[in-house]
Amino acid sequence: MAQATANLTGRITDRQSGQPLAGAHISVPGTGQGTVSRSDGTYRLTLPAGRHPIFVNYLGYAPRRDTVNVAAGETVTGDYALDRGIAELNAAVIIGTRSRDRTVLNSPVPVDVLTPTEIRQTGQVETSQIIQLLAPSFNFPRPTISDGTDHIRPSTLRGLGPDQVLVLINGKRRHTTSLVNVNGTIGRGSTGVDLNAIPASAIERIEILRDGAAAQYGSDAIAGVINIILKSDESTDMEYELGSTNTKLKGLAGDNKLSDGDVSAVSANTGRLFSGNGFLHITGQYENRGSTNRSLPDKRPQYFAGDPRNAQIAIDGQLHFRQGDSHANDVLFFGNSALPAFSNGAQVYAFGGISHREGQGAGNWRMPSNNNTVRAIYPDGFLPLINSTIGDYSGTVGIKGEGKGWTYDLGSVYGHNRFDFDITNSVNPTLGLASPKEFYSGSLKFGEATTTLDLTRALPISRFAAPLNVAIGVEARRDSYGIIAGEPDSYRDGGVKVLDGPNIGAQPTPGAQVFPGFQPGDAGDHTRTNYAGYIDLEANPIRKLLVGLAGRTEHYSDFGSATIGKASGRFEVFPGYAIRAAYNSGFRAPSLGQEFFSSTATNFLNIGGTLTAVEVRTLPVSSGPARALGAQPLRAERSQNSGVGIALQPFANLSLTSDYYHIVIRDRIVFSGNFTDPSIRTFLASQGFPGVGSARYFTNAIDTKTNGIDIVTRYALDLGTRGITGFTGGYNHTVTVVTNVDSTPPALLVQNSVLFDRLERSRIEEGQPHTTVSLTLDHTIRRFNVTLHTTRFGQVGSRGATNPALDQKYKARWITDANVTVPLVRQVGVTLGVNNIADVYPSENIPANNNSGILPYNGISPFGFNGRFMYARLRWDR
Q1: Which residues, given as ranges, of the chain have pLDDT below 70?
Q2: How far is CA 797 from CA 704, 767, 812, in A?
């Protein structure tokens, strides 16, 4: 029998001016019911008959709470006038709790909310860069000359791995990319979510839960959860941005001014609201980002000894390399919708998106004197290029509502990512003069299908100060991962030896230079299933105390079962002053990519101070060569995450939170070092595996301990007709230490190789900043705004795999950005901005690490090395 319903209608306005507020959120705490106000401030919300709490929240304004009584068939009016200048200090959040609408300050765990205004004021068009500028605990370095990782750059939270943070969209799980990061970058050996496949212009706000939440949301949530909320309002707008670097590069002779990395981006949003709480909002975004290059002239001898051209090159040098951002050309679409609620209050919703991204990154220069250069094709050497085509799509459909006292949400999501590798300006030297210059080297693909059912209910308990909020749910997930082989010419040995020169007749490296194709032996499709169930309880036994308990059990078809739990609490000592704490145990199974990725690649390793080409096989742990070298079947990671903090709001316009955290991970999955000793080839051949010259594999080699603290403060000063001034300060201190390293297998010790070397350890312990400080000051008068932002990225470091002479520290740097937004006409405004005003660069590589002075910077730099960036943005709002 259908449940009798009623309607709540009204208007949301600014109390001072009386102007309508479009996009304000009106919701019923503890349920899935809610709506947003239209362009004229009006709203309509369908409710079951009865008594309901109402929560009204709008960014930039203080939230309002109310209680309404509605009878069946009745329409009740609820008008709300909001006060300006406080809500951004204590914004409403939906992540971290399933019980009711909470705010940043009354949540039992630390949560950041990145508002639409803050997102827009960064001047960035990539979602990952936006989050990095606004959240000090988030790191997004800019790797370069790292194959596919140039195109999908990994990001981290609280200094952990890209695969140890869970990403949600509208509260639903987001699939990861198909790319496994296997080169020398932060996040090596991991597969994370490609945040830049989500258009920034489609985002209403971003919530970052900085706490272990595996028991609540899933096993990936060791470092925390990033929940991206899509736009759902009636607004319509368009933006167009143009920008480029304007920098001076130290080391260039003569005029050292550079201008590259041109960015051209356009986005459009439009939304429509329907009676009965329905809506449709769609977003399109296009971005073209030019490549940047901070390499210096190559003065090394390029030709055979005695060639007179070498002498001139030694004087003038030639720009052979490309060290910097890859070229990117992205088209992205996203949509968010819900049908008008049915008579029983149920609502069908759907959201998802599709992106097509093309990129081009460079490898290392091949000299004309190199054995892998076919000099009849490239007499003066060549720079091979990796061209990526990345297709990504996802779709979610579900139904939510209320029945028999329970709020329910049944939803299914499918996401898919494919990465195609096309190699140009290259050669397969074993094909000799018949070699093509372009190759299809194969593809990676990943798909994830997830279905969840979530049920929540508030159960009155007479002895409690508030109802006991109960949430229970189940999840079924199926992951699929595959490798598609490249064309035969991209990997085969054509039998041709070096054709000329002093090494005539020698064996060159088979396959397309820079990225040999995936071989038929690498190719395959792999799947697994996972089933989970959870229960999440939250209650106020007394008015000042909030207690939460959660438990989750998961079963993987390939890694068995695990049960994990979480306890959290918040105690308000007196109004505006609270302490909070949480403990969470975690379980993370290896990704399918970590289990099954297989490839052959040419890596340039620092050997004796010179980048040397080495053919390296990535071996699945189940393969014969890997087992011969001591590889063991992968195990699931186990983690414990504990934290304690304070949340203060001594004044209405000032807030401060400080949270300490301690994270222990056992059996952490990492990528081994590169086993490059010449004896490896002989050893493996003796074991029945000829042709493997060097190798690496995944392993549960280490345990780690992470300690840190996050501090966030916000201050808002309402100056009336002179506008509102806001200040946000953030501080993150994170230190990760490797507490245990498994013994190197005997088979590797005999071959003078180490399972987990000094270089890999340094990426974990010092490859990311130990401290990050973020400060933002902005002032708004109606539609005029000026914003000043500065970030101090702490020191990072790198070590040599075996040689301490390669150890280096890269000093901390302050990076300052500014922009001003000026209204032109009623609906049009322009923003002029400069990122990295002082044109700051990271510390330069020491000579032993810079490839003969050619590559001055290291890709672990948390802010890249592009220099000053200037941009202009034109925005139209309907």
Answers
A1: 1-4, 16-17, 23, 29-34, 39, 59-60, 84-93, 96-102, 276, 601-615
A2: 18, 5, 11
- Among 293, 124, 139, CA closest to 226: 139
Work out the burial of residue 271: count CB atoms within 10 Å of its CB; fewer than 13 is exposed, 13-18 middle, 19 or more buried: buried
**In 125-215, where do the E strands start and end?**
138-139, 156-157, 165-169, 172-173, 203-209
Model pLDDT, residue 87 = 43
Q: Which three-class secondary structure state does DSSP give residue 733?
A: strand
Q: What gap in Å lies between CA 649 and CA 577, rounded to an integer?
A: 6
In terms of Cα–Cα distance, which of 280, 391, 288, 387 is closest to 337? 280
- How far apart are alpha carbons 799 and 264 in whole angstroms? 38
Name the token pair of 598: 């297989």
DSSP-assigned states of every residue in 68-87: EEE-TT-EEE--EEEPBS-G
Assign 3-state DSSP to the chain and report helix, strand, coil percentages, each to 5.
10, 50, 40
Using alpha carbons only, how large is the chain's radius of gyration in Å? 28
**Residue 552: both structure tokens together:** 């989750």
pLDDT given at position 2: 43
First-residue to last-residue Cα distance in the chain: 43
Q: Comparing C-alpha atoms, which of 554, 704, 642, 640 is closest to residue 219?
A: 554
Residue 767 gets which letter from DSSP?
Answer: S
Contacts of 586 (CB under 8 A, 6+ apart): 212, 214, 215, 219, 221, 222, 564, 637, 638, 639, 640, 641
Q: Are 696 and 628 in contact (CB under 8 A)?
A: no
Q: Helices (DSSP H) in 23-73: which residue ranges?
A: none
Q: What is the pLDDT of residues 189-206, one digit of tens each?
A: 999 999 999 999 999 889
So what's the pLDDT on residue 66? 86
532 contacts: CB under 8 Å, gap ≥ 6: 218, 474, 475, 476, 477, 552, 553, 554, 555
Q: What pLDDT score does 90 carry?
A: 64
Q: Which residue is it, tokens 């091979």? A: 384
pTM value > 0.70? yes
Q: Are strands 560-574 and 203-209 parallel, antiparallel or unpaired?
A: unpaired
